[in-house]
Automatic annotation (TrEMBL):
Gene3D superfamilies: 1.20.1530.20. InterPro entries: Na+/solute_symporter_sf (IPR038770), Put_Na-Bile_cotransptr (IPR016833). The chain crosses the membrane at residues 39-56, 68-87, 99-122, 129-153, 165-183, 204-223, 229-248, 281-301. PANTHER family: SODIUM_BILE ACID COTRANSPORTER 7 (PTHR18640:SF5), SOLUTE CARRIER FAMILY 10 MEMBER 7 (PTHR18640). The keyword Membrane applies. Keywords: Membrane, Transmembrane, Transmembrane helix. The keyword Transmembrane applies. This is Bile acid:sodium symporter. One of its GO terms (cellular component) is plasma membrane. It holds the Pfam family SBF_like. The lineage of its organism: Bacteria, Pseudomonadati, Pseudomonadota, Betaproteobacteria, Burkholderiales.
């Protein structure tokens, strides 16, 4: 029997199950240290595979479209932080201050890679440009996100965006990516043939990070600090944030004279936020803080952006015939 359209996908179900597992059986002590080590290695492998998957031909083809990339980067690292700041009066009426910190952190993160490209392809948009924009956003985000965190969270005890934190992020994310690019000649064909199977690495590494982050948060009393009304308010804030980002991305792309294929790439790359990059960064940048509370807005936003993005991509595909 076919899965109902409203039923969550397998990864969403796995994510919910991981949060439930961490809520009832959080890891701690020596076991937590083991999980943290495994998670670090899994994230490094994830970014190594990202590098090995990325075709240099696609990068070169997409890199020529510099105006589009500037719009995407401005959407990701300028528009979103401004929206997060402007939403503060509304957000603090609906959610706790710690969750609002999570909203601000979400706003300074880079775009996703896989879902931005997949949705652009589904909508019949400019895929090479999307590949280049999403990848550039992720690589630049390794440096830009800690910088924005240090500026936005200045004076707050939540952030630890020091040089050591940036170096830790570079070692965990950037170096494996570069190593993957260097290894592409040797393993690129194998990676391309096994994309479906390697999705387990993508999703499994994210689930590991979520489990360790939420275990630490549960041990610190996460669910005792989060009223149901605040959780409902968080969903509403995420929906409003995504809706405004989508509308502004589309409006700017049309005002700047981009064609529909480019508009699609701008809308999907400029409105997404990366869970795979965001959760490891949060563990480094907010060490000692309630990381589970920080990443909860990102986790909800990730699921909402995928559901809304799929509907929007199908609509674009029908318009493009």
């Amino acid at each position: 029997m076919a899965r109902p359209a409203y039923f969550p996908d397998n990864f969403t179900l796995a994510l919910a199950a991981t949060v439930a597992l961490a809520s009832f059986f959080p890891c701690s002590g020596a076991i937590a240290d083991v999980f943290n080590a495994i998670t670090y290695a899994a994230i490094a492998l994830l970014f190594f595979l990202h590098g090995a998957k990325l075709s240099r031909e696609a990068v070169i083809a997409g890199a020529m479209h510099w105006r589009l990339h500037l719009v995407v980067l401005a959407s990701t690292f300028v528009m979103f932080p401004l929206l997060g700041a402007l939403m503060k009066p509304l957000a603090l009426q609906l959610i706790t201050p710690d969750l609002y910190l999570g909203i601000l952190f979400l706003c300074v993160l880079p775009s996703t890679v896989q879902s931005s490209i997949a949705l652009t392809a589904m909508a019949k948009g400019n895929v090479p440009a999307a590949v280049c924009s999403a990848s550039a956003s992720n690589l630049l985000g390794i440096f830009i996100t800690p910088l924005l965190v240090s500026l936005i969270f200045a004076g707050s005890s939540a952030s630890h965006a020091s040089l050591d934190a940036v170096l830790s992020i570079v070692l965990q994310l950037l170096l494996p990516f570069v190593a993957g690019q260097m290894a592409r000649k040797r393993i690129g064909k194998w990676v391309d043939r096994h994309k479906a199977g390697l999705r387990l690495v993508d999703q499994g590494s994210i689930l590991l990070v979520v489990y360790t982050a939420f275990s630490a948060a549960v041990n610190q009393g996460l669910w005792h600090q989060l009223p149901p009304a605040a959780l409902a308010g968080l969903v509403l804030v995420n929906v409003v944030l995504l809706a405004v980002a989508l509308m502004l991305s589309r409006f700017c792309s049309r005002r700047l004279g981009f064609n529909r294929a480019d508009e699609i790439a701008i809308v999907f790359c400029g409105s997404k936020k990366s869970l795979a990059t965001g959760v490891p960064m949060a563990k480094v940048l907010f060490a000692g803080h309630a990381v589970g509370m920080i990443v909860l807005p990102l986790m909800l936003f990730h699921q909402i952006q995928l559901m809304v993005g799929s509907i929007l991509a199908q609509r674009y595909a029908r318009l493009n015939g």
